[in-house]
Amino acid sequence: EDKVVQSPLSLVVHEGDTVTLNCSYEVTNFRSLLWYKQEKKAPTFLFMLTSSGIEKKSGRLSSILDKKELSSILNITATQTGDSAIYLCALNYGGSQGNLIFGKGTKLSVKP
Amino acid sequence: DGGITQSPKYLFRKEGQNVTLSCEQNLNHDAMYWYRQDPGQGLRLIYYSQIVNDFQKGDIAEGYSVSREKKESFPLTVTSAQKNPTAFYLCASSSGGDPTQYFGPGTRLTVL
Predict the structure, then answer these.
(1) Closest partner residue to A42 among B31, B56, B106, by Cβ?
(2) Distance (Å, rounded) from C-alpha B106 to C-alpha B8?
(3) pLDDT tens, A48-74?
């Protein structure tokens, strides 16, 4: 049973659109939630969120954790073709099997 | 430049052969990880190591083996016991106490 569920699995938008990607999780006792962007090869780190609920922002990207809803969203405004990638959400619950549990990712395609 | 390197980029293997994927980091990170990524799937943990000369199995360790003789190196061997080894393999590392993992560029393994 997946502990981290991302939706939608894929999304196609046009340049300039705003998108919201969702990450839901089942684990309540966790340390942090991380977002990564994977273009062709290595996932690159975007944000780390904690249960404090503080929004993180970087340029056109922002993300926040909703403890009550057990979810996190990643917003991208004014999308560009360079935003096309797989966006991965990972939960750091501090368990014995490594640090992070990854969702399956959302594949975002931004058309010109 | 600090970072994680993986080699080779592409690897072709005949059925019944063992192959070894290289992962080296010069970030002075204690922990290292191996993940497997299949199309439409998230990252699944194969093995991880929190310290030299010690490693633990992840969720899908069967058919794989690792060693951690040096802090900067964490090679992964895909054995002939792995029934479906064709996949994209990612190595990552992290610093003690920080859950953020930094990834190498990956190795794409194809079994012929």
Answers:
(1) B106
(2) 8
(3) 998 787 889 999 999 999 888 889 999
